[in-house]
Amino acid sequence: MLTVSCPACGFSRQLPAENVPDGPRRVTCPRCNETFIFDKSEPPVANEDAPAAGSAEDSASGPPSGQPSPPDAPSPFPDHSESQPAGDSLFASYEKPPGPPAMTDIGELFRQSWDLYQKRFATLILLYLLTMLAVIIPIALAVGLAFFMTLIAGGIAFFVTVSLGILVGVACALWCYSGFLCAVVDNTLRLEDALTRGKEKLLPLAWIFLLTGFIITGGYFLLIIPGVIFTVWFFFAQFIVPGENVRGMEALLKSREYVRGHWLDVALRLFLIWVVSGVVSLIPFFGMILAVLFFPYVMIFHCLIYRDLRAIKGDISFPCGTNNKLLWPGVALAGWIIVPAILILLFGSLFCGKVHQKTPVQIQTTRVGSGCLPLFRRV
After folding, report:
1. Is the pTM of this model over 0.85?
2. Are 172 and 206 in contact (CB under 8 A)?
């Protein structure tokens, strides 16, 4: 008998050795949805903490190890024996990588996202709706209050009240969206736990959003192509913060290291899901509603790409010295400064040229000898 154990949570199942195919296989744990590579020819790596917790939970909720499960008990790993050969039932939905681990097939990625979407729909959609309401309600209340304040204290009160409402709305939305991201990364979190975790990650994620937006926008200013590259490189920092507790530029640099060597594969997957999302939002009459309902699926899809890269790269090391942390913000800063400066100079010169052409000129004549010569004087 072979024991297939998840290195993340310790969940395990015993299988006959003859039913497990040879070679490395990519497996997704049904409990925590962590993706890992299993090879029956290699000895299992011991996990000191997670297996103990997993075995204790399994012993409390199921029969002792080595004994068959009751006939009506659900199988802890998906069983595809009806459509696949018995020896391949555990790994039926995963392709055997030809050498180094490759990314999950796109079709399989869509299927896994759909399975998780069905299981996590209630929690994720509630958190996403809370995020939108957290913006709308404070701003609407602030605008309504501002009209009454204007009658008492004038226009300044309106500006101050609306500004405070926007700040409160943005802060509450960031809190709810942080909880949403935490729930996407950790499939065990429910609504209350996700909001609690999101409150802890609010400031780190807010800083990540500012850094990512600054760098990517600056890259797009540099003739678009650097912005496209930066978008794929740094996209997964939002999952690294709640998933690995890495913050700031280190999260962006780690995201870049995950993507290194797989840029085209990652870009293709991101492009496809964004195209699908755009098509859904363009559906007449129901496009906006469907886009809201579809957004958790999109984020699950993104997160599965991140898990795939993390399973392939493992515990990676990456340069995160001061020079590395300043490099990409510096490149983005050049885009923010150089391109607007060029545009200002260009339009400024055109404007000055038009003003110069419209300046009236007064023509005077003076007699020289027997003729007259025109003299020009600018008015």
Report:
1. no
2. no
